[in-house]
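Key idea: predict the complex, not the pieces.
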Amino acid sequence: MKTEGGPPLNLNPEPHAASDRRRLRGGAPIQIGLLGCGTVGGGVLRLLAENSGYLAERAGVPLVVKRVVVRDLEKERVSALDRGLLTTSAEEVVDDPTIDLVVEVMGGETPARALIERAIDRGKGVVTANKLLLAAHGPALIARAAARQVDLAFEGAVGGGIPIIRTLRDAFASDWVERVTAIVNGTCNYILTRMRDTGASFEAALREAQDLGYAEKPDPSLDVDGHDAAHKLIVLAMLAFGAQVDSGAVHTSGIRTIEEADHRYADRFGYTIKHLAIGRDLGDSIELRVHPTLIPKQSVLANVSGVLNAVLLEGRAVGPSLVYGRGAGDLPTAVSVVSDVLDVARSIASGVAGMQGRGMSIKPRRVRPLSEIVSRYYLRFAVEDRPGVMGRLAGALGDAGVSIEQIVQQGPTKASQGAAPAGGAAAREPAVDVVLITHDAQEGLVRSALDAIAREEFLREPPHLFRIEEP
Amino acid sequence: MKTEGGPPLNLNPEPHAASDRRRLRGGAPIQIGLLGCGTVGGGVLRLLAENSGYLAERAGVPLVVKRVVVRDLEKERVSALDRGLLTTSAEEVVDDPTIDLVVEVMGGETPARALIERAIDRGKGVVTANKLLLAAHGPALIARAAARQVDLAFEGAVGGGIPIIRTLRDAFASDWVERVTAIVNGTCNYILTRMRDTGASFEAALREAQDLGYAEKPDPSLDVDGHDAAHKLIVLAMLAFGAQVDSGAVHTSGIRTIEEADHRYADRFGYTIKHLAIGRDLGDSIELRVHPTLIPKQSVLANVSGVLNAVLLEGRAVGPSLVYGRGAGDLPTAVSVVSDVLDVARSIASGVAGMQGRGMSIKPRRVRPLSEIVSRYYLRFAVEDRPGVMGRLAGALGDAGVSIEQIVQQGPTKASQGAAPAGGAAAREPAVDVVLITHDAQEGLVRSALDAIAREEFLREPPHLFRIEEP
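Result:
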């Protein structure tokens, strides 16, 4: 109405400097430089080729892959790749003035970080699935992109095919995220699912996961010790809580300490053990932690099995909201990367690059120390089976101000079975498990009770502690 | 790079006519006209007021509510409303040339449809949460908005606070949605959850839902007979399968026929009964149906309880992807509406209105008749307890080419208990339930077997048939 049919009368500067570029684009294709051509990169090439017509319609202009950066020019690649596009020089690609959009799927910090910074500085849109890089340098990269008014998109970085970044950024624009509870590591979730369903030990389930390609060989520690989940939690916290945090601030523990017995007891109390990434916005501070957690069996997260991932958000207005799907794999992640490519390409083609990230505020926030968090706890003690032990355990917790909801004793344990045939030494009482569920308690108080209990001679092994959540 | 620092040299026409408008906007606020101020409208006003600073940063310009259309000027409203904005004249608002964006939260077809069309024709962006209207006229409204290059957004229409529209439109841009399996009616889900968990009858659970405000009084039929879910399935099919379909083409059945016994048997076989909206893309045709369905107890959908909603998508590349949350309520729906307002406002402010919906293709598609679908079935027959009955039932199914996976007999039934004290008539054998689970079978074959069985004099009541899915 206001301007329809009329010539552009007002030539005042506009809010977006990108607008000048727009006038010059016309219908020219968006030229893409792809950094990396492994499984995800191959999936991206395949999806771009298979959906080229539809994507061009949605973007308003064709999307064309101009160069593909690889380390090894001779290696076998997906059939969707035109080998004439291959180069080993990433710098050449990010410096190429005809390339509009750089897709980084190499992973790792070096040289990905420098390449992304260089692409941003040269005014290119960037799509990346690099969670490690984003966990370490996300806020700086986002600020760099905002200053240069280009888009930096990273839907593929967390939860593979799950549209969690988009959901946090767009769907929750008018809400306040109070809590994030997430299964973001498919390796851990697969191992825990197999332990629960088949009674397998951690070691056996890990070997199975390795044989199926779900866990790294020979060193699965990035996954099973929780570091990968911690990286993803940092990225989620950046969007959910506007928080800039170091990975050192995230309490991170893995799943190696979970034994078969823990799955059995959890089941008996009505829980399933999941490896969760948990974030909470407490106003003055945030809570960020990655650890095995007991959650009620009938909760939705408890039923996210195998390699699947899920992120549960609790919004002040919207209430609980969960997204769920494949957390890894070439095609799921590639679908997320290509959805980002479409968004960024469309913005470039329309001269509104940098629009999506506008107004996002990310700043350092205090992370509450673990000793201050309040939770319910599952505690398992392998103890000698003699009168008074349960009372001593309960008493130590009571002295620390921790109140108990349930307590059961069950035996004999693995430890006692191992001890019996050893012979020679003075015969010890058979060992049993005492398992406790506490009411809400501050972790510091629970730890001080455990310190007191550690001095008891009836304790056969260090206690097992897992937190309980009701997501 | 290409144009940096240089003047706009190329004045060729651009792909988007909206661009002229952009030059004139500068930083002027986006003026909003709100049609309707009930629970959702009140929530929208509240969220716009509470998040005004953040939304202005994200949109690039302030978002200002200019007029609010209501029927009753005197009625009590939310405190976020400036009563000076109230008017009873919707036409005046959609005709007001200073209003950029119309938010329709009145519901119903009349006058919402005419007002939205008029707003589109006048070049305004439109946000609506009106599923009834979209089910009936979605493709025409989308085409109208595309022709006029304005945005029509409707995240609030399906699944309240669940970002399913955005997920289908953006996250799945490079994927092919093969299947949609959704719990989209909170009333049905609440009633079924209560029946399962407490053993209540349909009538008792419905009364409870009505007392809690989860079901309409006195007539809950829009929800419990499946019509509301059918409307939402049509909207989902429009985005997932690009399908334009009449509501008459969706097989729709509600939950009134489910008895307590069905929940008990479902549980024994390892299933939960959920009221599902199911869509499938079969290439040459689509399947669209809304009905009670048995799904495995440990599936994620089976654990979506109470008034919560969930939509499970199966993408060819991405695999399963689920979004879950509150399906109704003022604030969850308002969060979705405001996320749309932000999107549409930002596009208007940046001069790229109409960009999001670009390239979406919606056309009539053949809906496969129910008789042709292939499913597994749960069949319950209340029959006289006498030798040979089970054989006759199994035989009739076998004759029709339907093979049986499990069969159990259990008695006595409600019918037999009722029949006994009636006396007078010739004593009949006590009635029992025979419950069958079939292998995959074409529905037409199952129906023909049921026709044959209907002629058997041992049948005490019409058989209960529910489909089984493994989502």
